[in-house]
Fold 4-diphosphocytidyl-2-C-methyl-D-erythritol kinase.
Amino acid sequence: MAPAALFEDAPAKLNLFLHVVGRRDDSYHLLESLVAFTDIGDRLSATVRADGALSLTVSGPFGALLTESPENLVLRAARSLRSRLGVSAGAALHLEKNLPVASGIGGGSADAAAALRLLNRLWEGGLKEGDLAGMGLALGADVPVCIASHVALMRGVGEVLEPAALPAPFGVLLVNPLQPVSTPRVFAGFRRTGCFAARAAHDWTVEPDPHRWLHHLAAAGNSLQAPAETLLPEIATILSVLGELPECLLARMSGSGATCFALFPDAPAAASAARDFGARRPDCWVAAGRLRG
């Protein structure tokens, strides 16, 4: 009988706001971001390999865009965890890639975080979330927050995390133009034309009134949105259309782009907006769901 597979979801990450607040001497940018997660994402499975090897196969609508080389973040996470645990166990991993690649919603980071959680269970490692988050920072700035995949205020270069709260089960619509935008070029554009943002004065760690929460969120922004729009004007076009959809509460770009999101009162409203947007722009990737609490 084939060994039983274990599964982990790798939900899409959204930067509800993202402020670049400074830069370290080693050139890493200091960020402040309210990060939330959706019920839209990739899915990872694993079974034990008796021969001790680590392998990865990929499927899904965006699977063809990923390499199964040793440098894939999932395999890097697997090797890192195996080294930390001091075991020789192997695993056959399979990634169902449903999210666009390099699109500002943490797909690769979410996959790496899912691999750490999944293999920690498969190999009975017993590591806590904090241990996995500490390991994750070496794989990428977004990996620590993706370990728990709960709404959080993220600071520093991704290593400082504070639990936050959502005031309502908002629906969410994700749109990607299926055109790449280079993260290094976006940050280079910010350094040329942007200025460091002030740290947020609002306390995001308590669950407030939804209307007040949305007011403060609208007053925040994404420091990288303007330079990303300069590189890919299609982002501004998408945001304009999203903002005009019925019941849209907020439209913004996530991360360094190019995925944009819109918040709605609930998941059915987001699903209706997805049908509307998809009919207007069949050339885009469109997905609707809800924010995870």
